Amino acid sequence: MIAHDVRMALRGLRRNSGYALLNVGGLGLGLMCCFLIVLFIQHERSFDSFHAHNAYLLTAQLPMFESVAVVTPAGVTPSLKAAEPGVDHVVRMIDRYAAPIRLPNGDVRTVHSFTLADADVFDVFSLPMVAGDPAMALTAPDGVVLTQTVARALFGDADPMGQPLALERENATLTVTGILADLPSNTHLDFGMLASIEGARRFAGPDALDDLTNWNYLTYVVLREGVDAQTVAAGVAERLMTAYEYGPEDAAITAKLRALPTLRFDSELARSGRIGARDVRLLWAFGTIALLILLIACINFTNLATARSTQRAREIGVRKSLGAERGQLVRQFLSESVLLSSFAVAIGFIGVVLALPVFNDALGGTSTLTLHQPGTLAVLGAIGLVAGLIAGTYPALYLTRFRPARVLKGDLAQSG
User: Fold this and answer.
1) Residue 30 and residue 44: Cα distance in Å, rounded?
2) Which one of 120, 122, 169, 201 is least enclosed by Cβ atoms within 10 Å?
3) What DSSP string describes 191-252?
4) Residue 36: Cβ-neighbour burial (10 angstroms; 0-12, 13-18, 19+)
5) CA 95 to CA 206: how far, in whole Å?
6) Is residue 188 classed as helix, strand or coil in its secondary structure?
């Protein structure tokens, strides 16, 4: 039965190829735009959701500032390790920005994303290494890990492991102890060279990592199972109040631990303009645009199908007079709609593949939207087929209301 309906649908579409191309092209274009927006929303919602550990970013609110402080003092880390038994790992990160590097052959290259971090950074973030031991890579003060892209830029096809890198400004030499896979696009982390934070003592002083006044460090915390994040944060705030000799009469310092997957659309961080946080209303706006585009495409699909009613009326009248039931005709028209929408889904996917590079460039090159995930393909395909089914329902019900006797007499005005 289904095979017969499909054959009849294909035969009808072949007879009306111009209509089929117009309808499929219009729905396919709408689906392509919808698919791109869905991929963008999915990409944004996936930020930092791939880390295996229960990790948080520590932020603070100081009385003298209106916005949240994303950075905290370096000395928070040793105090957390000493005073909070529910803490598994604490990691500080500080961005040194551009760093002129002298290679062993004497060439000087600039790495624009040079970051310092504690040795157990790989116990906080799920960042796969392609060479080296993550447990040992940053234990030495001169250890440095490169991403694959930076490693290729500095050393080409040569093996970078164990190679010295001279920091021109700090008059220090680092040794490559690991190669890290390039960071995914759906993370707020942004570095190409990750060095041991112990090296900061060389250029910032021996007490640089114990200071509670130098608010320049991103602090990440991994908690043990069952530990309340805000209780730990309250302890941090209390120690900062003590360090700054704030009394009960002073405005309080507050602290908060924010789960990594929530950072992208944290409204407070969006107002502070740090770590790439965005207003969640952006997603709602894009989602609304996708629904409107899909709705317009479905309406156009429905209008084109309904506009052909005069051409299909005699066919329907003849088939009804020969004994065809309305349910059979409805199924036939829905088969045509699903077939058209299947072609439109294919066009939509082809359009997405062709448009993705341009779309990513329009987003500033910071996103890399892909169709490689089976779940993504299934969701997008379902959206297209359901849209085609919904768009074809009204024409199917409308066309099958025609009364055969009046249709065959040419009286379409009174036929339903």
Assistant:
1) 21
2) 169
3) -SEEEEGGGHHHHH-TTTTT-SS-EEEEEEEEEPTT--HHHHHHHHHHHHHHHTT--TTSPP
4) buried
5) 19
6) coil
Cα–Cα distance, 253 to 234 (Å, whole number):
9
Q: What is the pTM of this model?
A: 0.78
Does residue 272 contact residue 67 with C-beta atoms inside 8 Å? yes
Give the C-alpha separation, 237 to 76, whole Å. Answer: 10
Residues in the chain: 416
Nearest Cα residue to 20 out of 308, 296, 292, 298: 308
Residue partners of 132: CB distance under 8 A and separation at least 6: 145, 161, 177, 178, 179
Give the integer Cα–Cα distance in Å for 36 and 38: 5
Tokens representing 225 are 């199972």
Check: CB of residue 337 under 8 Å from CB of residue 308.
no
For residues 266 and 277, the answer to whether their CB atoms sit within 8 Å is yes
- Strand positions, DSSP E, 124-212: 129-131, 143-147, 164-167, 172-180, 193-196
Parallel/antiparallel/unpaired status of strands 193-196 and 55-61: unpaired
In angstroms, the CA 74 to CA 217 distance is: 6
Among 68, 81, 171, 173, residue whose Cα is nearest residue 119: 81
pLDDT tens, residue by residue, 14-41: 666 666 777 788 888 888 888 888 888 8
